[in-house]
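ok trying this again, last paste got cut off
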Amino acid sequence: MKDQKKIRLGLIGVGNWALFAHVRVLRLLPEYEIVAIYSQRKEAAKAAAKEYGIPHVAESLDALVTDPLVDQVLLLTTSQQHEEGSRGYLRLKSANPADASEIHANMLGDPRDLAALRKGLEIGRELGNSAAMKPFVKRKILPGDVKGEALDNLIRDGAQSMHHVTGTLKMGQDAESVVDSKLRGYGVKKLPIADGSIMPTVTTGNTQAPCVIIGERIAELLAA
């Protein structure tokens, strides 16, 4: 690769977590150099550029496409899963509250999660290979034509968590529940809990609106 000129990429991305995931993987490919990045979420693009040393953040899509330093523009797509089967755990290491807890995310611990992400990548690849997209496609970078175990390894290398983390103090009545229907912690007096941690499952939409509703509910309970 020392004698071969690198292909200078301009990236088009969406949310900040997706940008970070894609850039982290693309930087491992020696034939490419990321020279510019664009996202409608400008702060996400700036954060990714700062983290990975990308020299230029384009102000618009047109600016990225017409940038003379960019050889090829790369459209980033992603496969997301909101209702995962894998479950991790948070465990106390000692009776000292100052000691850090043991956190085990157990990502992709359930084989159904890997299968779902694999299907998502396959759908994205089919769209990219479609007749409608053909005039705009010069080459495929990732996942390319890899299948089977190679595709699964690509998913494992590139997967990361999202910003909808909830449910660490699940509300319910089963053995795994921590909070009751009035937002009181089981076995703990005078400790209402009112945030995204009480959601029994991860929401498929943004968590801000449900958290507002939870806050309004605890206000009603405390004022009663």
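PB: full thing came through this time. The CA atoms of residues 77 and 124 lie 7 Å apart.
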